[in-house]
């Protein structure tokens, strides 16, 4: 887009080129910032209005990646810093989905940001009734664009395998909040191997007693300290 | 050759670092807390003091004479008997024996009676048993004996309780329904916690410990503060200890308030005044340990948060120290080198009134 405008300019000195690029980039940056700010505001109406104004002024993929998705990342940062909270994350995710929906016709056949980032099965292992931390992780992963199947807490080992097969999952998230139930994470990994699924399915472990060292020991692909890190590591492993 | 000092990772792994690297980690941990909480980072002198504590050659360290602080134990009454991998040593003993061992052999300054489920809600059906045990403990012991449990609002949501699980509702974008569920659970929690303590006060309990406030987010904090306020009003002389679950109150609801202050997103120095306002006698600030960081980073961060809370609090602060909190590694039985170093730093640098 920047190149096209430069070709039309009468002065072809390099210096001028740079200035024009900056002007164009600044205009786009303002566009992206407006979209990003609208997502951070968590207001669906603001996002829809911002997308309506931005549509056609930059490629839809850029509007999504540099505007809406950037805003969602900012929401994640603000959540981690205790400035925004779970309902706001969900409102922002809902607003972003509405914005992406408006850009669908421009995305055409290309792989847009509307496609799912991956399929994740999430659950707390058998014998462990803790739910809240795992639920936050599921919510944040969903808000980030993953298809999440949260199968609850105190989940029998076989249920993880069944759900992974049913959903053709790319990753499984295993939560345990007690030292006594941590072993359940390893049991799921062992059953994944027995079912020939281990090479296909990434494994993330989490929960208060889980650590990096435990993740290595039990054969998981990664350990996530909190919900924001879970999103970052899921992206790292699946994208 | 540069001398390296022994310390630990947050998961308890033994590591060796140079003084310069340890100092850099203390500084980084403190800076992280200062950045998040918008509070002062540790001063150069304080960092030097912490560095001395961490690099002290002895296996254990202690505070200078005269700086000793009172210690109390959550659920210590079942720590002798407990054998579930939760720091218990699996020696058959009643809760009375467990409490008396803490009083007469371990030097505990206060003690608490706790049920194995350690949440208020499951105490309701066994309240008579709890009252009887409390009465027997009071008849045999001298130190203050509180009743303690977790507010644990999670038990009020499906499948454990009557209210729809806000986590499920939130994922279905039913945000206002999720918020309503949290509010209703909080209101039930207040009623239950007050009722339980009304019963225990009648048999001579010296007070109550609200342990891990905020574990289920801001609804948990909302219920706890209102229960504290109601108990203070009904029992003016009751001793109330209010300990947190983590450094940040998670915003599961997002808009719940106490005394005009939004509860979600509060850091320890902002929690302390509210806890005092509700009527507690003691505030227990908490900072969780990051298992992927060194104990130097974790201690720098914990002390920075705790010091700000101590300064902001009008009531004494008894910092929560143990498995995975207060700069102590996440191990079932935390290593004594780390426990004593973190405790000394909390007393001498953060200025806590108790542990």
What does this 3D model show about the protein?
The complex is a heterodimer of chains A (239) and B (355). Chain A is of the alpha/beta class. Chain A contains ten helices and five strands; from the N terminus they run αααααβαβαβαβαβα. In chain A, strands 2-1-3-4-5 form a five-stranded parallel sheet, sandwiched between helices. In chain A, helix 3 packs parallel to helix 5 and helix 5 runs parallel beside helix 6. Chain B is built from eleven helices and ten strands. In chain B, helix 1 packs across helix 10, helix 2 runs antiparallel to helix 11 and helix 10 runs parallel beside helix 11. Chain B has a six-stranded parallel sheet, with helices on one face. A two-stranded antiparallel sheet of chain B has the order 1-2. The chains are: A alpha/beta (239), B alpha/beta (355). Chains A and B meet through helix 5, helix 6 and helix 9 of A and helix 6 and helix 7 of B.
What labels would you give this structure?
heterodimer; A: about 240 residues; alpha/beta; five-stranded parallel beta sheet; about 10% strand; elongated; disordered N terminus; B: about 350 residues; six-stranded parallel beta sheet; two-stranded antiparallel sheet
């Amino acid at each position: 887009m920047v190149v096209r405008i430069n070709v039309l300019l009468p002065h072809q000195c390099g210096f001028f080129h740079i200035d024009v690029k900056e002007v164009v980039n600044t205009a786009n940056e303002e566009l992206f910032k407006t979209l990003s700010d609208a997502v951070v505001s968590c207001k669906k109406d603001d996002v829809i209005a911002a997308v309506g104004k931005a549509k056609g002024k930059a490629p839809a993929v850029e509007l999504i990646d540099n505007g809406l998705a950037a805003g969602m990342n900012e929401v994640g940062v603000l959540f981690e810093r205790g400035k925004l909270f779970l309902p706001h994350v969900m409102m922002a995710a809902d607003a972003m989905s509405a914005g992406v929906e408006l850009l669908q016709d421009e995305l055409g056949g290309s792989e847009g940001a509307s496609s799912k980032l991956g399929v994740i099965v999430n659950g707390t292992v058998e014998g462990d009734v803790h739910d809240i931390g795992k639920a936050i992780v599921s919510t944040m992963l969903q808000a980030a664009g993953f298809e999440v199947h949260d199968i609850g807490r105190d989940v029998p080992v076989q249920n993880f395998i069944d759900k992974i097969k049913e959903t053709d999952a790319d990753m499984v998230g295993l939560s345990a909040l007690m030292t006594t139930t941590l072993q359940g994470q390893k049991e799921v990994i062992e059953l994944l191997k027995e079912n020939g699924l281990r090479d296909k399915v990434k494994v993330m472990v989490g929960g208060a007693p889980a650590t990096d060292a435990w993740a290595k020991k039990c054969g998981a692909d990664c350990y996530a300290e909190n919900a924001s890190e879970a999103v970052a590591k899921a992206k790292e492993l699946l994208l | 050759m540069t001398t390296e000092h022994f310390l630990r990772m947050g998961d308890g792994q033994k590591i060796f670092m140079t003084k310069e690297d340890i100092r850099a980690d203390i500084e980084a941990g403190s800076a992280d807390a200062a950045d998040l909480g918008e509070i002062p980072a540790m001063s150069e002198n304080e960092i030097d003091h912490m560095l001395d504590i961490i690099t002290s050659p002895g296996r254990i360290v202690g505070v200078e004479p005269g700086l000793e602080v009172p210690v109390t134990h959550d659920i210590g009454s079942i720590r002798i008997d407990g054998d579930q991998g939760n720091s218990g040593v699996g020696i058959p003993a009643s809760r009375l024996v467990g409490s008396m061992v803490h009083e007469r052999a371990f030097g505990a300054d206060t003690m608490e009676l706790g049920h194995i489920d350690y949440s208020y809600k499951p105490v309701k059906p066994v309240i008579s048993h709890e009252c009887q045990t409390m009465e027997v403990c009071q008849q045999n012991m001298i130190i203050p004996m509180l009743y303690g449990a977790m507010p644990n609002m999670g038990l009020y949501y499906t499948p454990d309780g009557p209210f729809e699980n806000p986590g499920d509702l939130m994922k279905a974008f039913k945000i206002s329904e999720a918020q309503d569920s949290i509010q209703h659970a909080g209101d039930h929690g207040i009623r239950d916690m007050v009722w339980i303590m009304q019963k225990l006060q009648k048999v001579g309990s010296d007070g109550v410990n609200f342990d891990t406030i905020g574990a289920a987010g801001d609804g948990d904090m909302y219920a706890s503060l209102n229960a504290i306020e109601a108990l203070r009003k009904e029992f003016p002389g009751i001793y109330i200890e209010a300990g947190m679950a983590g450094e940040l109150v998670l915003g599961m609801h997002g808009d719940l308030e106490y005394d005009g202050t939004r509860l979600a997103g509060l850091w320890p120095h902002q929690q302390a005044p509210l806890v005092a306002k509700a009527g507690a006698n003691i505030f227990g600030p908490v900072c969780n340990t990051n298992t992927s960081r060194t104990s130097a980073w974790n201690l720098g961060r914990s002390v920075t948060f705790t010091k700000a809370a101590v300064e902001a609090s009008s009531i004494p602060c008894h910092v929560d120290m143990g498995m995975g909190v207060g700069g102590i590694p996440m191990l079932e039985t935390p290593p004594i080198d780390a426990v004593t170093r973190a405790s000394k730093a909390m007393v001498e640098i953060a200025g806590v009134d108790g542990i």
